[in-house]
Amino acid sequence: VPSQDSREIVVLVNYDNRNAAQDFVVPVADRNVKLTLRPWMSGALVGDSKTGIQAVESSADVFENDELLIGSNLHSMAISFGLDALRTTQRMLILPMGEGMIRVPHAGKWHRPVVLGGQVTGGRWKRDEQFVPAETSGVLALPINASRSLSMLILCESGTESDAIHQIETWVNAPWELD
Fold first, then answer.
1. What integer pLDDT is reported at residue 29 of this predicted model?
2. Helix, strand, or coil here: 162?
3. pLDDT tens digit string along 139-176?
4. Spatial CB neighbours of 61, under 8 Å, sequence gap ≥ 6
5. What is the DSSP pairing of strand 67-72 with strand 113-121?
6. What is the DSSP letter of 175?
7. How far apart are CA 106 and CA 104, in angstroms?
8. Which of 17, 47, 90, 135 has the most beta carbons within 10 angstroms of its beta carbon?
9. Which residues contact 124 (CB under 8 A, 6 or more apart)?
10. Is 57 left (phi over 0), alpha (psi -120 to 50) or beta?
């Protein structure tokens, strides 16, 4: 898919309805990215050769050059704020589309991570909950129950919540104003 800047955008659709899920290895932004798609599901990758992968949509774990980028046992999207790579950003939007668990590696990049759960209504962020994700062996765990499924989750550093909320509202209301 064409981009207005140096980023590469790849969109995939799994039309195979005979298998439970299908793995794909896709070259994007000078990297090999492995993702899994369930039948009739779409997937996407956005990246740039300088910074790395900035957004993903997959039905399971996503690997960048054999390193876990986002762990998941459900269909979800993860989008870095700004133009940072998912592996280095301290602020990301996670969109879970089912129940299960999302795992975010490189937990050491946060000092006090926090997850804001909610949605944008009428152009304004409406917070439904806030929680601190559990961390084990350098990986943050975000349990996704029925109330979190199909919601918006902002993962950020504690103390930066208002900036993250402002950026989400800008994405929705005036995306042309983003840096």
1. 87
2. helix
3. 999 999 999 999 999 999 999 999 999 999 999 988 87
4. 34, 35, 36, 68, 70, 71, 72
5. unpaired
6. G
7. 7
8. 47
9. 169
10. beta
128 φ/ψ angles, rounded to the nearest 5 degrees: -95, -30
Q: What is the CA radius of gyration of the chain?
A: 16
Distance, in Å, from the CA atom of 120 to the CA atom of 112, rounded to the nearest integer, reads 24
Cα-Cα-Cα-Cα torsion 14, 57, 35, 9, nearest 10 degrees, comes to 90
Q: What pLDDT, in 10s, does the model give residues 73-102?
A: 999 999 999 889 999 999 999 999 999 999
Supply 90's token pair: 């301290």
Q: What is the model's pTM?
A: 0.94
Structure letter (DSSP) for residue 88: T
Residue with tokens 């369930």: 38
Query: Parallel, antiparallel, or unpaired for β 67-72 and 8-13?
Result: unpaired
Percentage of the chain lying above the pLDDT 90 cut: 84
For a pLDDT cut of 70, what percent of the chain falls above it?
Answer: 98
Q: How far is CA 2 from CA 7, 27, 43, 45, 175, in A?
A: 9, 16, 16, 13, 18
